[in-house]
Amino acid sequence: MNVLDAIKRPSRAQKGYKGDLSSADCPSRGVLDHVTSRWGSLVLMVLLDGAHRFSELRRRIGGVSEKMLAQSLRALEGDGFVLRTVYATVPPQVEYSLTPLGLEVATHISGLTCWIEDNLPKVMSVRAKLELR
């Protein structure tokens, strides 16, 4: 046994995970795509503040088109992360909020975004050095 074999970490499958993200047909990939997409992660972050109407979400998420916001909301709703509530008013009012599962995943995304913000100066420094080459 060589040194690399001795220190090799167990695979996700060996740890008891059900999916294999490295496999092209793993259903976990679709969920990962929805959660970590540019707009999906921002939707989750905004909804951590509470329920919002579509127009409020669009204002809070700079640069998102109506089409991309609608697609992201549908995908997150389909995965069980976002709850779409329609109120019987004229015109109908629709509100989006996080489900308990959505709150859990949004908390993880929040941790990642905090890490990025905390380490942004380091990242920008590396970028600047690479641009000077």
**Which CATH architecture?**
Orthogonal Bundle
Q: Which structural class do the helices and strands define?
A: mainly alpha
CATH-derived topology: Arc Repressor Mutant, subunit A
- Please trace the helix and strand order, writing H or E for each element: HHHEHHEEH
What proportion strand?
A: 5-15%
Per DSSP, the total helix count is 6
Number of strands: 3
Topology, please?
Elements: H1 3-7, H2 28-36, H3 38-47, E1 52-53, H4 54-60, H5 66-78, E2 82-87, E3 93-98, H6 100-131
Antiparallel strand pairs: 1-3, 2-3
Helix pairs in contact: 2-3, 3-6
Protein name: Transcriptional regulator, HxlR family
InterPro entries: HTH_HxlR, WH-like_DNA-bd_sf, WH_DNA-bd_sf
GO molecular function, one term: DNA binding
Describe this structure in words.
57% of the residues lie in helices and 11% in strands. With 133 residues, the protein is mostly helical. The protein has a single domain (26-131), classed as Arc Repressor Mutant, subunit A (Orthogonal Bundle). The protein has a three-stranded antiparallel beta sheet. Helix 2 (28-36) packs across helix 3. The longest helix is centred in the C-terminal third of the chain and has 32 residues, at 100-131. The radius of gyration is 19 Å and the shape is globular. It starts with a helix and ends with a helix.
Output the keywords.
single chain; 133 residues; mainly alpha; Arc Repressor Mutant, subunit A; 3-stranded antiparallel sheet; 6 helices; disordered N terminus; transcription regulation
